[in-house]
Structure formats: structure tokens, C-alpha cells
Task: structure prediction
Amino acid sequence: MVDRRGTPVGASSLPWGGPGARHAPLAFHPAMHRHPEPPPLTTDSAVFLDIDGTLLEFAPAPDQVKVTTKVFTLLTSLATKLNGAVALVTGRAIADVDRLFPELRMPVSGQHGCERRTASGYRHVHASPAEATDRLRVAMHSLAAEHPGLMLEDKGITLALHYRRVPHLAAFVHRAVREMLAPAVAGGAGLQLLTGKMIVEVKPVGRHKGAAILEYMDEAPFAGRTPVFVGDDDTDEHGFHAIHARNGWSVKVGPGATSAEYRLADVSAVLAWLTAFDKRSRAALPHNA
Ligand SMILES: [Mg+2]
Result:
């Protein structure tokens, strides 16, 4: 399978990969485990962006992240340049994203694909096992109350325990939540564990960021464009797989094993890469536009 540029999908993760470089010899190269930076975005891209660790730096708690004017302006401008084909794809709840970006009502997939706002403003909410989730809510709340520094983020459909402020409790928290979830899993409740950076979550089976991206790609204004997904966490790997299935570009932010084709070093690098496209496409506009 090849992408729109004629590059075999997956092959450009090699150091000689990327547009125009596919005739290089397939020999061992000490840098072959590295991922190149992504090519410049084009006006045919459909851009899907994770938030925390991708667009915004992490903070001790999710409600403490800082949204800069630069990010807000950039997202607004990108949406214009790409005819609205920009979506935020996050583990946060949509209501929380709207609190972060109060002036921005763009497409958002929240709670790892469990809820999704389309470009036309329609909000899909996927069914979840409410009873089992309620039981886990009580248990996880008690756990957080017993251990100062732990923080339960109740997003409605999904429940997340953050241990960023008490990283020494990582193993304990993982084990405790897994044990809490075990009866629900054994009973076929349709819930599963999801682990990310300093976070353990419980979410419905079958929903993830990749599912949301595929749904967007069947809708205007995303359909027919080359999908690009940028994310920093293990939970974004589902999104990368969906991107590969649609012949798009997957971009991992920061270090760590990944199935993504490309890599950007950090939040600053993501913003610089998006800004470069924004400036270039602005310069390409007719003077009277
Ligand atoms: Mg993230």
C-alpha cells in the first residue's frame, strides 16, 4: 500500500523515508529506529490533534493547564485554512474542552471516542454500562480520598485516576483499579482499563480515539482528505492505527515506543510545525483575499 505521495505506508519511518527518498538502499542504518519529522501539512490535510502533551503542556492537574492565545489563534486559523477539517481528539470530556477553549466550538472527540461533536455541531454519545460505572465511581472516589495527591477525574462515561502528584503510587494505583474493575469484567460489563501518562482510566470497551477518527473521515469536511493525527501518549496508538488504515500521517510527540510514522520532539515542535503551515498558506492567499 502506498500513500498519496507514492511512499510505501510505514516505510518512511526509516531514516531514508519520506517524499522522494524511497529509492535509497535498504541497508542497516544506525538511525533506522528514529522517526523523521512529518512533512509540511497541505491544504488537503484533515488534522486531528490530541490536547494534553500535544497542544498544551501538562500541569499537576488537568484543570491547571494553560491555554495560550497562540494556541487558540492557531486552531482558529487552521480551521479556516483547512475548511473546517480540524478536530480535537482527547481523553477529556467535551464539556471540559469547551471550558478550556470557551470561544472555540470546533469538532471534538471526547472521553476516548465515547462522545463526539461533529463539524455540524451534532453530539454523539455512545452507550456505556452505567451501573457498573457507578459502582467503580464510588470505589475510585474512596481510593482517591484515602490517598492525598490522587485525583479522580469523573468525566461521566469514563473515570480517570491521576497520580501525577504522587508518582510513587503508580504500581499501587494500577493494581488497585485493576482489582476494582475485575468483577465488572468477569460479569461482562463491557468496561476496560486504559493506561496513559500518570493516569489509569476505566472506559467502555470498543471506543477509542481511532474509532472517532474513522467516523470523522466518513463525514464532511474530513472525507476525501489525508488524515493526520498528532498525539503523545500510549492512548493515541489507537488513533495511529486508524490513520494508517486511511493512508494518513501519524505523528508521535516526544519519546517512547510507537507505531507512528513520524515524530515531533515536544509541544513547542508541534506548535512550530502547525504554525509553519499556517504562515505558508496565509502567504499563498491572493493579496485581495
Ligand atoms: Mg496527550
Observations:
- The pocket of magnesium ion is lined by residues 50, 52-54, 231-233 (CB under 6 Å).
- The two ends are 39 Å apart (CA to CA).
- The domain at 130-204 is CATH 3.30.70.1020 (Alpha-Beta Plaits).
- The helical segments are 69-81, 94-100, 130-146, 170-186, 209-217, 237-245, 267-283.
